[in-house]
Amino acid sequence: MNALKVSVTTPYGMIFNGEADYIALPGADGEFGIMAGHSDMLALLKAGVIELNYNKNKELVAINWGYAKVQENQVDILIDKAILINSDSSQMSKAMESAKKLLEEASSDKIAFSSVVSKIDSMTKG
């Protein structure tokens, strides 16, 4: 399987720059996944979690909103604010708390917020 070239950037700098086998994005019209060979598109992203899967590793990026430009083998994601949640980090619990705060501030939809927080908790535990 071909890998996607992925960049996740905020006004404050690069959050992720590398390759991924699969990405899940929180689109304004619902969550969607991207693999190599995906058709070209532009998407508005809402508050939620970007899931980056590569080499059997997984990283999560909590976002408030942004845009994704998808091309056949490349995805460029521009985000207003983001928190990287990396399972290898000794600061994971601090990152999770920061991510929850970001998501709570970004959306008044308590049901959606609870769903995203549950996703973060389950992904980082398993």
Structure description:
By secondary structure, the chain is of the alpha+beta class. The protein has a single domain (4-125), classed as F0F1 ATP synthase delta/epsilon subunit, N-terminal (ATP Synthase, domain 1, Sandwich). The chain has two helices and ten strands; from the N terminus they run ββββββββββαα. The chain has a five-stranded mixed beta sheet, with no helix packed on it. A five-stranded antiparallel beta sheet has the order 4-3-6-7-10, covered by helices on one side. A hairpin with a 2-residue loop joins β8 (66-71) and β9. α1 (92-106) runs antiparallel to α2. The radius of gyration is 14 Å and the shape is globular. The relative contact order is 0.20. The model has no long low-confidence stretch (mean pLDDT 83).
Question: What is the strand and helix layout of this fold?
Answer:
Elements: E1 4-10, E2 13-20, E3 22-27, E4 30-34, E5 41-45, E6 48-54, E7 57-63, E8 66-71, E9 74-79, E10 82-86, H1 92-106, H2 110-125
Helix pairs in contact: 1-2
- The end-to-end distance, rounded to whole angstroms, is 24 Å
CATH topology: ATP Synthase, domain 1
* Main pleated sheet: 5 strands, mixed
By DSSP, the count of extended strands is 10
Shape: globular
Query: Helical region count?
Result: 2
Mean pLDDT rating: 83
CATH class placement: Mainly Beta
Order of helices and strands: EEEEEEEEEEHH
Strand order of the largest sheet: 2-1-9-8-5
Provide the CATH architecture: Sandwich
Kindly estimate the percentage of residues that lie in beta strands according to DSSP: over 45%
Using the CA coordinates, give the radius of gyration: 14 Å
Coarse structural class: alpha+beta
For the record, the count of structural domains works out to: 1
- pLDDT below 50 for ≥5 consecutive residues: which ranges? none
CATH superfamily: F0F1 ATP synthase delta/epsilon subunit, N-terminal
